Amino acid sequence: MPLLYRSGDFVYYHDDNGQKKLGRLRSILKNHDGYYQLRIQKILEYSDLPGNLKGLSRQRRSITSEV
């Protein structure tokens, strides 16, 4: 049974450095050659946030996967 993805689904992908990242599928495009192109929105992890958005309560919620 083939996998079915829809816009808005959360997916894992490999970034330019080959690291596995979590993202949200924004759109699925098909070009004139029949190849698919996926547009993926990057999901930031707590460690990626700028310092002004890091706080103890946000860190705790991040660890428990709440945010």
Task: List key phrases describing it.
67 residues; mainly beta; 1 helix; elongated
Q: What is shown here, in short?
A:
With 67 residues, this protein is mainly beta.
Describe the structure.
With 67 residues, the protein is mostly beta strands. It has one domain. The protein is 12% helix and 34% strand. It contains one helix and three strands. It has a three-stranded antiparallel β-sheet, with no helix packed on it. Strand 1 and strand 2 (20-30) form a beta hairpin. The chain is elongated, with a radius of gyration of 16 Å. 0% of the residues are buried.
Largest beta-sheet details: 3 strands, antiparallel
Lateral strand order in the biggest sheet: 1-2-3
Enumerate the spans where pLDDT stays under 50 for 5 or more consecutive residues: none
Strand residue percentage: 25-35%
Structural shape: elongated
The amount of helix comes to: 10-25%
Ends distance: 32 Å
- Mean pLDDT figure: 87
Structural domain count: 1
Estimated structural class:
mainly beta
> Count the strands?
3
What is the H-and-E element order? EEEH
